[in-house]
Amino acid sequence: MTQKTSALNKKDTSWSGRFNEPVAELVKKYTASVGFDHRLAMYDIQGSIAHAHMLSLQGIISQEDFKAIETGLYEILEEIKSGKFEWLLDLEDVHLNIEKRLTDKIGDAGKRLHTGRSRNDQVATDVRLWLRSTTDQVIAGLVKMQSSLLDLAEAHFDTVMPGFTHLQVAQPVTFGHHLMAYVEMLKRDVARFADARCRINRLPLGAAALAGTSYPIDREMVAKALGFDGVCENSLDAVSDRDFAIEFTFASSMVMMHLSRLSEELILWSSPRFAFIDIADRFCTGSSIMPQKKNPDVPELVRGKTGRVYGHLTALLTLMKSQPLAYNKDNQEDKEPLFDTADTLLVTLEIYADMLRLPVVEHGVVVKTGFTVNKEAMRQAATEGFATATDLADYLVKKGMPFRDAHEAVALAVRYAVDKKVDLSDLPLATLQEFATQITEDVYAVLTLEGSLNSRNHVGGTAPAQVKAAIARARKALP
Ligand code: ARG
Questions:
Q1: Residue 435 domain flag
Q2: Which of 143, 213, 395, 447 has its CA 20 to 30 A from that of 322?
Q3: Which ligand 1 atom minimizes the distance to the CA of 209?
Q4: How far is the CA of 49 from the centre of ligand 1 (A)?
Q5: Which of 164, 241, 229, 173 is nearest to 201 (CA)?
Q6: How far apart are CA 270 and CA 252, in angstroms?
Q7: What positions carry a catalytic annotation?
Q8: Are 337 and 458 in a shared domain?
Q9: pTM (whole model) above 0.90
Q10: Is 93 in the pocket of ligand 1 (CB under 6 A)?
Q11: Torsions phi, psi of 14, nearest 5?
């Protein structure tokens, strides 16, 4: 994009009539937003065409003027798309740049476009249109990532791994079950964006600067033309509300928080100490000094970028804090955090969906590498931390022992096994019976990993059959 400052004549700026001296060069740069809001151009043009059409249908401008405006704006859109459009810093923002170009092209008709409108309701409309389309892309990205997770979960619906609490081995779970926890998080994320979309999708136009306009406008007509669900019902609120931007950034922060948790796990699991998984090489980098290194850069960056998105949320909340009604120039600062939040989130979701994909194998040959799981290492880890101790306690309860007593008996057995450096299932029956006389030969079925998994056979449990059912339900619910 070219951004030129030129010595504009006074008459060239749209508001300079009452000023005695031109704006200082540094102030121009300080106050201009065209450097970042030019990306709203398409939505600005869309909004202007709908507004001008309504003006003509209401008899506020002529049909010929509307046609000239529409043709001129479409030409400008082409100029922008082809990179020919010259963005001028002197013209402050995307709105004034486009309007000036239109007037240069079609004369007085171009000057009539702004009838009954202000940049205050115009910019709020543009941002909402952009954010609505961005929200739809985010939802699509979340769905794509869920579908990668579901494929991976399906391939590992019965792969045993240790489930952790306090990052200590707790109870066996399946890797599929673990992944499905993230599918649940992303399901809530989709619902949050869909809900936020309802409040994004309201039309501010018609509020004009702050109080409405004296022209006989039809706001519902414009709302319908632009696909809004309705109009913002108070003109002061319409131009000053940025709740929708904050909500989007909050929902994005929540997604990033979820992804940062998964990232942290991938980083741990791919370290040689765990060696549970392997991330395809295209998502990792090496070290310039240590030849053996393969660093999980993508998950690490996702973890880092989560902080960046939280920062934008704080910036937007603080931007709106204590702002008196109605529009204030402060609001121009909403765009960069919002744009960066969306850019960060969308690319993160896209990369993540790819990173979690299974390898593609054709005729026994890997044609595309993907996310691989070291089942043996996962299983081994599950056997190392007395993961079935709770199962032994539950077994004793089923034989009539009160749970607290069973807990104590198993704790003593674990202590004994730790001393002997063996697993509970390695202890002979006679030894186990020293901790609880109720124990009989059938205990070994309970102490196995599969026995433990299969016993948790209810909705939400980790039994492989339940994991399969959960995957099927989640697939069905995907749009
Ligand atoms: N560039 C401005 C923004 O982003 C447009 C609205 C300007 N309105 C005004 N009265 N100065 O908020």
A1: yes
A2: 213
A3: 10
A4: 19
A5: 229
A6: 26
A7: 166, 287
A8: no
A9: yes
A10: yes
A11: -85, -10
What is d(CA 393, CA 447) in angstroms, rounded to the nearest whole number?
10
Q: 96-102: list long-range contacts, CB under 8 Å, 24+ apart.
A: 96/13, 96/14, 97/34, 97/38, 98/41, 98/44, 98/45, 98/48, 98/73, 99/14, 100/12, 100/14, 101/76, 102/69, 102/72, 102/73, 102/76
To test the pocket of ligand 1, the residue of 332, 334, 335 to mutate (highest count of ligand atoms within 8 Å of its CB) is 332
Same domain, residue pair 260 and 155:
yes
- Which of 48, 327, 329 should be mutated for ligand 1, with most atoms under 8 A from CB? 329
pLDDT, tens digit, 9 for 90 and up, residues 68-109: 999 999 999 999 999 999 999 999 999 999 999 999 999 999
Q: Same structural domain for residues 171 and 317? A: yes
322: left (phi over 0), alpha (psi -120 to 50) or beta: left
Considering the domain architecture, whether residues 329 and 445 belong to the same structural domain is answered as no
CATH code of 57's domain: 1.10.275.10
* Distance, C-alpha 189 to centroid of its chain: 7
Q: Is residue 14 in some structural domain?
A: no
Expressed as residue numbers, the domain containing 350 is: 120-365
Q: For position 12, what pLDDT does the model report?
A: 55
Are residues 161 and 244 both part of a single domain?
yes
CATH number of 242's domain = 1.20.200.10
List, in order, residues 6 or more apart from 298 with CB less than 8 Å away.
Answer: 263, 279, 283, 284, 351, 352, 355
Q: Are residues 160 and 201 in the same domain?
A: yes
- Quote the ligand 1 centre to 123 CA distance (angstroms): 7
- Contact status, residue 237 vs residue 324, Cβ threshold 8 Å: no
Span from the CA of 317 to the centroid of ligand 1 (angstroms):
19
Distance (Å) from CA 345 to ligand 1 centroid: 26
Is residue 120 lining ligand 1, measured as CB closer than 6 Å? Answer: yes
Domain count, the chain: 3
